[in-house]
Amino acid sequence: MDNIPRRLIKGCAFDLGNTLINDQKLTAASVKDLGQWLGRNSIISSPNRFIQTYMQNNYQINRPFISHTFGEIDFFEKTLAELSISHISAEEILQKYRRILTDKIQPDQDIIETFQYLKAQKIQIALISNESNCRVEATLDKIGLQHFFDTIIVSEDIGVEKPDPRIFMEGLNRLNIASDAMIMFGDNNIADGACKELGIYFVLVTGFRSTKWVWEKGNSYQPDYVMPKISRNEMETFMTSFQVSGS
Fold first, then answer.
1. Is there a contact between 168 and 190 (Cβ–Cβ < 8 Å)?
2. Mean pLDDT lowest for which of 31-35, 202-206, 242-246?
């Protein structure tokens, strides 16, 4: 930290999945509960086989602006077809899965306190996420963070995904700040790290990070700083030693 030039920081941008929310853990637990529910209702004979097949299809199917966490209809269509399941539709099972997953999401006091601290420092807060709109809306509704964000940028909404620099430029434009006045917090060296192409400072958040939960292609960027988890103590230590904030 001693060799890092001090900056006047006016904005902090956060990724959602595996940065603010433990997506991999949330997905695994939700698919497990779904498989058990299907088994109890005699829709499938082997919950474990269902879980394994679904997770394989989740990893293998990829296209822009989808949610590997919230699930997509074709994930379930392919899984049901491979397992010859006809007692339930893909739409029914998708909605059941999303209800299970949403019920598991809980507010994180560490994040709430972190955002309160940033607001007290007069730092704007943005969400920049490669996700579907329905997933972001469901998650923010459940954890109650909407009022903290000065802007919410979802790839599906603007038609551009990280690591495309245009999504970070959208954040800068909406916050009306220069690139050297913003910090991007994320778990993905490719998707989130690409902010460095614009001169944005990149903090790698490692607490929920998983190399298996990466679909983006491109260069992998070295972080400027590594933070184990978003918390007030971690953020205050980092910001105090790094820069003069606000106003």
1. no
2. 242-246
